[in-house]
Structure formats: C-alpha cells, structure tokens
C-alpha cells in the first residue's frame, strides 16, 4: 500500500494540479435557550468525513477546499436536536453561531452508586480487554473466507485552473464520450486507478500465517505498468487492520487502536446513554477522541456488544486526528463491521465489511487532492478447518491467469452488489486517458523512478542508478544494462550490462540467466558471469539486493580496487513460510589493482600484484515471518510490508583450496538481525545488528571492511558516515546501527516549530572488530593515485578489540516534506585526517 501511495504522490506532483480556493469555517455552538456554549459538540460537513469537535468554549474551526455554495455543516450533541446550516460567500467570512435545541426525547435515568466517580465507558473497555482471547480473530486455530475488494483512486477539485493544465486537458478531452463522474459532494473527479479483486483469505495459528489467494484481478491505471505486482497489493489483506492489537502499522507508521490495552493513556471516551442495534446485535455506543492531538490516534465511535456477546467489537467508524503529523495525508477514515460466526457454542468475530478512505492533499495549498477508496466485502466464513501447513508458505498467491481472461459474467457473479453504469465506465475512461501522449510520458517517468528501468515492451533498460559513476580508477564510468520482464517469459529472466571507464579504458561486462522452477515457493536456478571492477568492502550480503548501495560502491576514492572475473551457479527457494535459502558455487579470478602480496612482505620493497584464483561455496538462510514480499514484473521479489517481528540472516562462505586451480581457501560466518519496533507514543526504532568471524587464514580481499561513506554531504543510513571506505579491516566484527524516530513527539511540543511538521531522530552506530595475527602477515598498500606517494595513514587498520568505533548523531526530518538533515559526531579513533563531525542531508518522499 505504501508503494501504491508513492505512485499516487508522484502522479499528483507531475500533474501540478491547482486546487480550489481554501476556506476556514469558523463559529461556535451554543444552547438555544440559555446561550451557554456547548463544548465538544460534533460539527462536520454534510456528505464528507471532514469535521471537528467544538472546544471548551464551544468554538470550532474547519478547513474546507470545496465549493462553498454547496456546503452544508451539521452540528450535533447528545441531548440536542441536530442543526444544519447552509453556507454561502456571505456567511463564510464571519463567525457562524449554531443554536442547538434540547431534544424532546427523554434519556434513561443514570444512577451513580460509587462515591468515587468513574467514566461509565471504562468498565466496558476493561471487559473488551478481558475478552480479547475470545473475540480476536487471531486467537482462532484457523479461519478462511471469500473476499471482494474494490479500489478506486481519483483526483478531485476539478476547477478551471486545474482544467487548463495540458495533461489534464488531454485527459478531459479523452472523457468526452463518457458521462461525467462526480464524488459524494457532486463535484467532478478524474479517475486515475481502479481495480477489483476476487480472492480467498486464509489464516492459521502457531505460528501465525496469513495467505491471500488472488483468483482474479482487474486493473486499470494511469501509473506505472506492473500488473503482476499491483495485483498482489490490492487484495483485502493489505487493509485488514486488526484493532485488537494495541497498534497497527500503516504508511510505515504505528497507529494507536481505540481499544488498546493502554486505552486510558491515549483516548477519552463518552458512553452514549442508550444501546443501539447493529445487524441485530445489542451494542454499547462509545465515542472516543485522542487525549493528545499530536498522537497517531483517531476520533470516532465504536460499537461494543453487550455481555451476551462477550463485549466484542461489532463496528468502528474512525477518522484520524487532524493533529497527526503525517506528510501529504489530509484524512484517513476507517469503517469496519464484524460478523459473528458460531463455533463450539461461542461466537468468533470476523470482518464482514471494511471501508477505507484516504485523502492525499497536504502537498501544497493550491494542489489537488487525491482520494483513495477501498471497499472490502467478505463472506463464506469457515472456522477451525485448517489446510495443510504447506499451503500457508506464501503470504500472497496469484493464480496464473489472475489478471487475464476475466469477463463481465465472472465479476457479476462474485461482486456483492452490481456496479453502477458510472462505476463500470471508469475502467474504460482510464483506458482512454492512458492512450494520450502526455499521460504516457508521465506514467513512463514514474515507472522509471519506481522500477529503476525504462520499459520498452519485453525489454527494460537500466538500472538507472548505474548509468554513471565517478571513481579514482575509471574516472567517468558509463554503463548500459538490460533485463527482460514477464512479457518476455513467466519463467525465464535474462539480464546483462556493459560499462566503460574513461581513465582505465577498460570494458566491463556481464550477464545472468534465471529460471523460475516454482513461483509459489520462489524456487530459482540461476547462472551468471561478469568481468568488472570491484572494491574490497564488508558484508555485501547484507545489501546485495539494494541497487543504490551497490551503485554507491562505484563512487569515490577506491583504496583497494580489483578486477574480478566471476562465474556463478546458484539455487534459491523458500523452505517454508518466511524461511529462504540460497546456495551458490562461484569460480573467481581476482586481479588486485593495489600493491598486494599474499604471503609476507614485498620482495626488495618492490610492489607485487598477486592474482587470486578461487572456488567458493556460499549458503545463506533468511527467516522473517513478518516480512511481506511481492513479485515484480522483472521476476524479483520486493519487500512491501513488515510488522514488528525481527528478520534473521546467517550465511557461510567456504573457499575450496586446490579445486579447479584455486590458490587460496578460507571460511567465513556472518549473522544478522534487523527489526522495526513501534514504541507507542515514543516513536519507532529501526536497528541492524550484525557480526561475523573468519576463523581461518584468508586473503586480504576476503577480509571484512566496514561500509563507510565516501560521498560527501549525502547521508547513507546503512553506512558509517564519518568512516572512509577501506579505513578499517578485520576478521572478527560486530556492529549495531540504530535510528530512532520520535515522530514529532519532541518538536510537536514547541508551538512555532509544530506548524512546520519537523520530526527529530536519534542515531547511534557502533562497530567492534579485530584482526588476528594469522591474517595480518600480508603485504598490502592502498592504490596510489597519479602524483601520490605512499602514505601509511591511508592503509586499512584493525580496530582495537577493547575500543569500538562509535558514531552518534541527531537530526531533523520532514523539512519541506522531503528533506532530512543529520549532524553526526565521531567519538573514537580520532586522527589528523579523520572526519570527526559532519552534516549530511538526504531526500525522499515519506509519510
């Protein structure tokens, strides 16, 4: 879902849409008889989720961007009759007084028996907590149900300025033959994405595993072209928020549930005096609001079943608080209904309906708002009839013909209700707009940014980050590569590249072939060969799937570069859910470009360049149940969601001496764990803990070098930013890289800063290491640049076993929504040439 929203943001920015005039509706709510202010009255705009509560003095303020002539506000409060006020250009400029009359309906008598007052909602909320083990669906041994999901994304605020934009004019012209589409307020909209998905969702306990089987998916989009990936993220599982958890992750942020076990710390509650019926179930109606406006918490109403149904959550209608510090997001609305399923003489509660609406509008005052609406309907519930554990090995399973060959009869049969003529024509409208030249251009640019490749039918050129680099060996390096996609083959993936350096005047090249033997288990056989420039650096296994990091290794001063010819054969598969294994055999020939002698000192002081000829076996295990991957059109897997559970990795490398001409042998073991932790109101932490050992003698290029940052000013979150690449070396190491985001909890307390939406972060990077005597007896000098003489200070040195390398820092994120500034201090290993303090910047869209 985060990836989909990033695409939406890109489209909005590229369209550069201008919104309508903005207003602030101001006024106060009073008692019609006494003229006393009515605090905490509900005031909202009719037909929308935009609204607020009056303050202690009855005053309210509501921002509004729409047509004021069609705006009606409604005020209500318990014990009073609702009042409607129609707005116009005359009364919008002054405070509006809304007088509420007492309702003629009598309320039930309330008897307070305790001398010490207690909020009457609290006993009900305690009962909700006491019955979580009964009512929370994840406490069931298993469940499954059939699901239909309808996802729509559209652009609103279609004013005259907006219509004059060239790309918008092209789109509107393409709509001439269609009936106009409007939103719930009657304003015209432009659809940019529409999808419907039919799926089956399955859950099994111990360990908890959820699998969504996508049966059919119908997608139309003005954005990037990757139906295979999109079909995996528009199913119901990506908006299936479990409110029985204390918090749930969305947009990489931790939102606080209204029924959290710490409910008194985060919410205030108001119990309505009379019970209501929801689908025939008697419920307590409880209104709630955040205690602190800056928390990622909600306003709204929950409907809790009475004691007959064990105080289960039956329905929730919630809107994210306006004070929540989330970029670009104007509003979030969640509406869920649960259905009781009889099982062993008790009821289990499963989601029957889910509506989710998100408005993307906080980009610029004059830009358009984009709305995302996801509607889910579930049926055919089955409880405690699990499938074999093997079935749950993948979080998402896509049928081979899921996004082809679907017809009208199929969708008419599986939709919970028939689409209107306007809803049905949206698919054709998007097809028509997609064919316009300017839309194709914008979609193509967005696709290149997100995928890193330029798609040309079955072939894609890239990756874009590798097109150019500049370093001390090649000076300017130019590279062109390609890969095939799923239009070329659903089983076979080919890729290759060629590069040239203007300084060394050497061609580099390589290619790979991958064959997918089993897509559900992600079983792949691959072969590759490359002849390319490399540099000695640590633990590339930790980021070998991150193109930006590999591209960064081609920049700057290469202290220890080498040319490598590498032929590899590998196999990858998922053994079970969350557990992936890779096995690889490589034949490597390394020609150091730095003075290097594997044994002892240089003869008579003359530099040597020993060639290394090796044969290696490599094995890697990765285990992470909370990490969700989807397959892309390029036959790669991409991480698109994760919960708070950690991911573990362990890999082992064995160099085989005297095998196929090998002149070295060694062993290396590396372990790692990474995790994102939501710490409630204190923010979120992300850490990477890793370590390794080379217990045997090993050639210098196989030793470990911490990943430093040779790119000035630009921050790299996986690097030691004040350390040079090639500054330290070792055969035993352990490191911790930690970043804590306070999510505005510090700066939100400062009135003037709070308006800027800045967020503070804390940084701590620690590296322990040492180099054993068996690996220190190698003659190694860094590569000399033209005009340089040998400088011992540029040599890689071992860390002291009792003194770690430490960087600490702080920073501010969310400057102008996209900019981050970090200040870093190096607290150990100060030298004449070391960088002991630095200011770094980073850029990127984040919520």
Task: Write up what this structure looks like.
By secondary structure, the chain is mainly beta. The chain has two domains: 2-13 and 131-445, no CATH class; 452-784 and 795-843, Beta Barrel (Porin), CATH 2.40.160. Helices cover 12% and strands 43% of the residues. The strands form seven sheets. The chain has an 18-stranded antiparallel sheet that branches. Strands 8, 9, 10, 13, 14, 15, 16, 17, 18, 19, 20 and 21 form a twelve-stranded mixed sheet that branches. The relative contact order is 0.09. Keywords: Signal. This is DUF5686 and carboxypeptidase regulatory-like domain-containing protein. Residues 1-19 form the signal peptide. It comes from Flammeovirga kamogawensis.
Give structural attributes:
12% helix; single chain; 12-stranded mixed sheet; 43 strands; 18-stranded antiparallel sheet; Porin; 847 residues; elongated; 2 domains; mainly beta; 12 helices
């Amino acid at each position: 879902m985060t990836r989909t929203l990033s695409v939406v943001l890109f489209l909005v920015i590229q369209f550069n849409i201008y919104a309508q005039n903005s207003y602030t509706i101001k006024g106060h709510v009073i008692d019609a008889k006494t003229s006393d202010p009515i605090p905490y009255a509900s005031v909202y705009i009719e037909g929308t989720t935009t609204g607020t509560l009056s303050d202690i003095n009855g005053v309210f303020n509501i921002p509004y961007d729409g047509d004021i002539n069609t705006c009606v506000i409604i005020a209500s409060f318990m014990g009073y009759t609702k009042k409607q006020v129609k707005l116009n250009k005359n009364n919008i400029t002054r405070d509006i007084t809304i007088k509420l009359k007492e309702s003629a309906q009598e309320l039930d008598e309330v008897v307070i028996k305790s001398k010490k007052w207690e909020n009457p909602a609290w006993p009900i909320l305690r009962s909700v907590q006491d019955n979580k083990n009964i009512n929370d669906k994840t406490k069931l041994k298993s469940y499954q149900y059939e699901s239909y999901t309808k996802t729509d994304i559209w652009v609103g605020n279609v004013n005259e300025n907006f219509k004059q934009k060239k790309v918008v004019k092209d789109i509107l012209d393409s709509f001439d033959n269609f009936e106009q589409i409007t939103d719930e307020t009657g304003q015209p909209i432009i659809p940019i994405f529409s999808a419907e998905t039919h799926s089956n969702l399955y859950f099994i306990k111990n360990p908890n595993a959820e699998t969504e089987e996508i049966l059919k998916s119908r997608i139309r989009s003005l954005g990037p072209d990757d139906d295979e990936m999109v079909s995996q993220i528009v199913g119901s599982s990506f908006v299936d928020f479990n409110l029985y958890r204390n918090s749930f992750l969305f947009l990489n942020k931790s939102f606080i549930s209204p029924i959290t076990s710490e409910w008194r710390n985060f919410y205030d509650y108001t119990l309505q005096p009379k019970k209501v019926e929801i689908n025939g179930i008697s419920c307590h109606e409880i209104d709630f609001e955040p205690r602190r406006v800056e928390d990622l918490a909600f306003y709204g109403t929950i409907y809790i079943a009475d004691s007959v149904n064990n105080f289960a959550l039956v329905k929730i209608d919630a809107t994210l608080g306006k004070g929540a510090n989330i970029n670009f997001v104007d509003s979030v609305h969640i509406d869920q209904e649960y259905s009781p399923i009889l099982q062993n003489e008790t009821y289990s509660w499963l989601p029957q309906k889910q509506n989710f609406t998100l408005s993307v509008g906080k980009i610029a005052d004059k830009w358009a708002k984009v709305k995302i609406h996801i509607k889910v309907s579930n049926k055919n519930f089955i409880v405690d009839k699990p499938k074999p554990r093997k079935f749950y090995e993948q979080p998402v399973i896509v049928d081979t013909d899921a996004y082809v060959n679907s017809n009208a009869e199929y969708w008419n049969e599986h939709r919970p209700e028939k689409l209107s003529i306007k809803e049905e024509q949206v698919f054709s409208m998007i097809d028509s707009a997609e064919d316009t030249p300017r839309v194709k251009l914008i979609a193509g640019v967005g696709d290149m940014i997100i995928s890193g490749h330029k798609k040309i039918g079955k072939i894609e050129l890239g990756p874009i980050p590798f097109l150019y680099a500049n370093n001390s060996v090649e000076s300017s390096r130019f590279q062109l590569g390609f890969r095939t996609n799923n239009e070329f083959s659903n089983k076979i993936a080919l890729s290759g590249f060629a590069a040239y350096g203007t300084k060394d005047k050497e061609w580099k090249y390589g290619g790979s072939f991958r064959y997918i033997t089993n897509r559900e288990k992600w079983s792949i056989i691959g072969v590759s060969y490359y002849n390319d420039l490399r540099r000695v650096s640590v633990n590339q296994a930790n980021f070998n799937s991150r193109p930006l990091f590999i591209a960064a290794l081609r920049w700057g001063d290469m202290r220890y570069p080498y040319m490598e010819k590498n032929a590899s054969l590998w196999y990858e598969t998922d053994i079970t859910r969350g557990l992936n294994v890779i096995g690889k055999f490589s034949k490597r020939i390394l020609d150091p470009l730095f003075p290097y002698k594997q044994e002892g000192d240089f003869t008579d002081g003359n530099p040597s360049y020993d060639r290394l000829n090796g044969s290696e076996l490599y094995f890697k295990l990765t285990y992470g149940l909370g990490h969700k991957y989807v397959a892309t059109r390029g036959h790669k897997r991409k991480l698109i969601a994760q919960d708070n559970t950690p991911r573990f990795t362990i890999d082992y490398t064995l160099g085989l001496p005297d095998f196929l001409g090998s002149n070295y042998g060694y062993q290396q073991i590396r372990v790692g764990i990474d995790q994102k932790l939501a710490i409630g109101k204190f923010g979120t932490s992300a850490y990477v803990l890793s370590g390794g050992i080379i217990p045997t003698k090993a050639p210098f290029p196989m030793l470990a070098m911490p990943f430093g940052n040779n790119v000035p000013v630009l921050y790299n979150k996986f690097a030691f930013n004040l350390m040079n690449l090639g500054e330290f070396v070792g055969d035993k190491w352990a490191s911790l890289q930690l970043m804590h985001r306070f999510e505005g909890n510090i700066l939100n307390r400062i009135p003037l800063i709070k308006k800027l939406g800045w967020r503070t972060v804390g940084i701590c990077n620690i590296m322990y290491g040492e180099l054993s005597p068996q690996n220190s007896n190698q003659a190694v000098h860094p590569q000399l640049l033209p005009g340089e003489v040998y400088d011992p200070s540029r040599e890689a040195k071992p860390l002291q076993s009792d003194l770690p390398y430490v960087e600490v820092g702080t920073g501010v994120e969310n400057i102008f929504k996209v900019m981050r500034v970090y200040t870093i201090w190096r607290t150990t290993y100060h030298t004449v040439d070391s960088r002991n303090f630095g200011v770094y910047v980073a850029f990127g869209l984040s919520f």
